Amino acid sequence: MAKTTSLLKNFRIEAIPNPIDTAFFSPKDKITYREKWKIDLDQKIILFGAANILHPRKGIAYLVEALKQLKTNYPGLNDVEIVVFGKNKSFDVSALPYKVHETNMIDSQQEMAELYNLADVYVTPAIEDNLPNTVMEALACGTPVVAFNTGGLPDMVDHLKNGYLAEFKSAADFAAGINYILTSGQKNELSANARKKVLDNFTNEIVAEKYLSVYKSILKK
Fold first, then answer.
1. Which of 36, 64, 102, 156 has the fewest Cβ atoms within 10 Å of its own Cβ atom?
2. Domain total of the chain
3. In a 3-state reduction of DSSP, which class is residue 196?
4. What share of the chain has pLDDT > 70, as a percent?
5. CA–CA gap between residue 172 and residue 63 (Å, rounded)
6. Domain CATH number, residue 113
């Protein structure tokens, strides 16, 4: 949760998230989309992406290190592949220690929903972020999320319930989080909790009600 600055400390602050279309971003058949995108049905898929994956605040360097540690520290986890979406001008995906599928920029919401659904985990190593739509969309599709414990991410990711909140800037803990999600015996529970988090907090109806509540409280004054 963002901290209030001294300039605004005497004013009422209301943080209202963006809503999400939970009918569109919803759990769908993983096999169908794996086949469409030519992703092996037997592999564990890590999904990562951003409008610009090389933007410093997106934390690509931490992800590279975390994946290297995942490969080294969890040798039993060898059936892993990575799907990367977003603009990539110069990042060499061969730096990642697993097979990589690059989709480049995705302009279609339908295709984004497909990617979330074919993945086993969505990772966001961002070191600065508020309430990113990608996290909300992934959760709405029932895909657990691994993120750093920073910014607005703890408002979306409940540690060990619908994802994993890694220690800030710790590649080792981020790797531990990915391993936890991919090897957990509570896969269905994690997925159900991910979906429930969005339904309980980020639907159009819930966000609209929050706006109405603020307007009503202002009118009463």
1. 36
2. 1
3. helix
4. 94
5. 10
6. 3.40.50.2000
